[in-house]
Amino acid sequence: MKKILIIGSTGQIGSELSIRLRSIYGVDNVICGYFAPPFPEGFFEAGPTVEIDALNINQIADTVKKYNIDTIYNLAAILSATAEKNPKLGWDVGVGSLMNCLDVAKEYKCALFTPSSIGAFGPSTPKDNTPQDTVQRPTTIYGITKVTGEMLSDYYYTRFGVDTRSVRFPGIISNMTLPGGGTTDYAVEIFYKAVKGEDFECPVKAGTFMDMMYMPDALDAAIDLMEADPSRLIHRNSFNVTAMSFDPEMLYAAIKKHYPNFKMTYNVDPLKQAIADSWPNKLDDSAARSEWDWSPKYDLEKMTVDMINTLKTRLNK
Ligand code: AKB
Questions:
Q1: Residue 183: closest CA among 92, 118, 130
Q2: Model confidence pTM above 0.85
Q3: Cα–Cα distance between 317 and 308 in angstroms, integer?
Q4: What is the mean pLDDT of the chain?
Q5: What confidence score (pLDDT) does residue 4 get?
Q6: Which residues contact 309 (CB under 8 A, 6 or more apart)?
Q7: Is the C-beta atom of 238 inside 6 A of ligand 1?
Q8: Does an H or E element contain 287, and which?
Q9: What is the dihedral sign for C-alpha 50, 54, 56, 58?
Q10: Eight-state DSSP code of residue 38
């Protein structure tokens, strides 16, 4: 049985990944690293937890030693729009935490999962059916940390044999923990507004297409890649993955089928618009499909129905 450490387990992905991993590998085999509040409800009662600052390599190493960890999911991150406002912090957290995890993984022979992002691409990348292997010249600090992370992870694999694996996540749509400071966050926030009966102001223009994915598929992507037969992997850091591509109008129309009176207007945030404009419209994820059988289950319609039903229950609406 694996012994897993999640760094950043209270965030948008970590709060759901921890539940899924514990259901597969057992509660006591998944150690949830936390740094700062807010903590998900019942977080400390749900299983083993440990306070970890991802920038403190000794804390990571001590935890790996204490619990005999063999697999690390490093989810510490500052998302794109926030990183753009504080590039030094974006770099320190994005690259500093990864370097610490890579060195600990090398010393204690752990496998390491690190999320990359559609943000690892830039304006000179082909926008449609963005290939797996293509130009990566991002114009955001977030993207620069992601490309650096992909390269460092491949370097530790080829040079030291560390089992590093990664996917380029699109915008992730979830209903348990809100994302914070990302360019794709609008695609989560719009659902909360619709279910609460409130109007929504969209920060990116109509016609802005980005890749998106529902959380259950994102969890499958991370776990299935970590379970994949290494002899099949031609790539490692990082795989294109996507489940859908839409612009705000398409998402609005999908939600309006369930809430005909729901109103969306635009109040464009120039920073988020510039970031979104520099990212692809739609990735080609055929390498992930052929190397580890990636296949998402949720499209726009199916995700919309599930988001609305789950949020109605969660928000008592
Ligand atoms: C962001 O918008 O910054 C993230 C991402 C696509 O990596 N959700």
A1: 118
A2: yes
A3: 10
A4: 97
A5: 98
A6: none
A7: no
A8: helix 286-292
A9: positive
A10: P
